[in-house]
Amino acid sequence: MRKFNYEAKDTKTNKIVKAVVQAESEHEAAKLLVAQGFAPIDIREDQSGENLLTRFTSRITTKDKVIFTRQLSTLIAAGLPLAQSLRTLLEQTQNRKLRAVTQELIVSVEGGHTLHDSFAKHSDVFDRLFLALVAAGEASGTLDASLQRIAAQQEKDAAITSRIRGAMTYPLIVLVVIFGVMAFMLLTVVPQVEKLYHDLHQTLPLITQIIVAASEFGRHFWWAVVIAIAVLIYLAIQYFRTEAGMRTLDMLKLNTPIISGLFQRLYMARLNRTGQTLLDSGVSLLDMLAITSEAVNNNIISAEIDRAAEKVKGGKDLSAALSTEEHVPELVTQMLSIGEKSGRIDEMMGKTAKIYEDELDSQVGALSTAIEPVLMVVLALVAGGMVAAILLPIYSLVNTLQV
User: Fold this and answer.
1) Are 233 and 262 contained in the same domain?
2) Helix (H), strand (E), coil (C) string for 336-369
3) Residue 396 — pLDDT band, cuts 50, 70, 90?
4) Domain, as residue range, for 204
5) Phi-psi region of 43 (alpha: psi -120 to 50; beta: other; left: phi over 0)
6) Could you give the percent of the chain with pLDDT greater than 70?
7) Number of domains in the chain
8) pTM of the predicted model, to two decimals?
C-alpha cells in the first residue's frame, strides 16, 4: 500500500480537508475519497518517507490513545453515527500517524466492517485488550461504556509504569554524574599529577599508578572503549529481543533483590485490573485469562496464567488453578475464592488490584527514599577515592621536598 497526501472538499460541510490516505494507486485513492463523501482537489504520493526522527515524533503515545478513546466514547454516547464520530476525531487529531490510522478506520467502517475488525487491522497500535473490549461493547450495545473502560485501563497502567520509571530516573542521573566525575578526573587532573612526578623523578604511590594507567588507556584508546561499550549495548539489546533473552530479563525482574517485590506487585496489579475490566465488560473467563496473559507483559507470569487456564478448562476453579503457581501470592487466590463463592469475581479482582496498586505506590516511594543515601555514599566513595589518589602523591612530594 502506498501513501497519498490529499486535499479535498467535504461535500457535507464544504470544508477543505488535508490528510493522508493509503491506496494501491492514485486512482484508487480518489475512489476511496469519493466513497467517503470528499471531492478530491489534489492527490500526490507521499515521497517524504519516514526517518528516525519522524518515527519518534509521530509515534502514537498512550496519551494519544486515551484522548482518542475518550473522545470517541463521548461522540458515540451523544448519538453520532460511528463514521461521523471518526470523521470528527480526524479533524481534531494532531498526530500524523494516528490521523492516518483514523482515516483507514473510516474507510473500513464505511466499507461495512465492524469497529472491532477495523481496529484489528492495526494490531500494532491497538492491543488484544483494546480489541476484546471493543468487541464486547459492540456485542452488548454498550460501545461507549467499553471505550471508557479502555481509556481508564490505559490511564491506570500508564500511571503505574510512569511511577516506576520516575523511581529509576534519579539513580540513573547519579550514576551518570559518577561516571562524569571519574572521566573528568582521569582525563584532566591525573595526567597533570603524573607529569609533575615525572619531572621531579619521583615514584607515584600504587593507587595513583593504577589510576594513571587507567587515564593513559582512556586518553589513547578512548575510541576502543566507546566501540566496546557500543558493541556490548547492541549485543545486549539483540539478546533481550530474543525469546531466551526476554525470559531471562523477566526472571531477573522477579528474582533480583529489592526490585523483585516491586515487579511482582506490578504484575499482580495488571493481572487483576485487566481481569476486572474484561469480566465487567462481559468477556468470558477463558478469554479473559488469554488476554490477561499477554497484558501482564512478563513471560514467566504469562506461562503461569496459561497453565491455570488449562486447569480451568478441565473444570477447576480459577482460585485453585492459580494457587499452585509460584509467583501468584496467596492474597490473590484468597480474594478470587471469595469472588467465586459470592459470584462477584470481577469485583474481587478490582479490590485486589487496588491493594497492589496502593502497595506499589508505597514501595516506589520507599525505594526512592532509601536509594538516595546509598547513591550519595557511592558517589562520595568514588569521588573520595579519586581525590585521595591525587592528594596522596602531592603530600608525599611535599614531605620529600622538605627533607
Assistant:
1) yes
2) HHHHHHHCCHHHHHHHHHHHHHHHHHHHHHHHHH
3) low
4) 165-403
5) beta
6) 91
7) 2
8) 0.69
